[in-house]
Amino acid sequence: HETKFSRAASILRFWLNVARALQRTHLTALKRFLIHKIFLLRCRVNEHIYACTQAYAMRGGENSSEAGAQQHQQGIHGEARFVHQGCASAANAPLGVTWITLGVMSYVLLTLLARSLLHSEQAVAIWRAEVPVLVYDRCMFVFGTAFVIDILSACFEVKTSRLDMVLLPAYVKGVATLTNTLVRYGWGTIGAAPDGTVVMLQRYICWMHTTPTILLLVKMIATSISRKQLTEAIVCVELMLVTGAAGAMTTGWLSVILGCLSHVFFLPLVPYLHQGLTE
Asked: Is 0.85 topped by the overall pTM?
């Protein structure tokens, strides 16, 4: 057990260093985003000054030329359009990229930790005797094909505001493809309950990343779902999956209690999905 925990600690330290490096990388994008916001603020101040000047002129103050006023207004709108076009990718596109980057890091970390602490070779032998490999071959083909189609679609949306709407579904199918590949070739995490029941923990790790992404997509296509509702839904779905996996890995009354808790955490997701999908 000490060897497993030391291995898990070294894995955790490695990915924390990667996270720090990634944070330093994203500082440039944050700086660019703040510069664009400053430009937008300046445009709004200029528009306010022009509106006050025009109101003063209408009350009989200094009469400025109409041509000059139009030129000034066109300059303001032109600058605003330039800023909006320039910061569209910096303000919107990095959401999907950041989400996917953190998701991949979290997926790898949880997979390594689960394999170090919960993996059972005896469970793998039982699983291979009961489940045909052809099942995972088909899943790999289906999800892999959908993943390639989404990546090709993303190539046409690189400079548009719809990039996140294509990248996030591609991430869901990519994680599903990776999960089936790991399990197919024996690299996934498979645990066993005390009574010998085989538990496909790699599936739970997959769901812990794909389901929150689907909830994020629902929030993006809806108009009334707030960020607080999204956060609460993600917390509930993670608790639902953790308690579900824990219930599958235990027996007796503890397994029943954890299973009931898993269903309780699912209940808040119903109004969230109903609100998002009805819009």
From this structure: no
Distance in angstroms (rounded) separating the CA atoms of residues 248 and 255: 7
Helices (H), the chain: 2-58, 66-91, 93-117, 121-130, 133-155, 163-184, 201-221, 227-248, 252-266, 269-278
Q: What is the pLDDT of residue 91?
A: 44
Q: Is the dihedral of CA 123, 128, 130, 135 positive or negative?
A: positive
Three-state secondary structure call for residue 16: helix
Per the document, the length of the chain is: 279
- CA 103, 144, 21 angle in degrees (round to 5)? 25
Burial 38-59, CB ≥16 within 10 A → b, else e: ebbeebeebeeebeeeeeeeee
Question: Poorest-confidence range of 33-37, 49-53, 78-82, 224-228?
Answer: 78-82
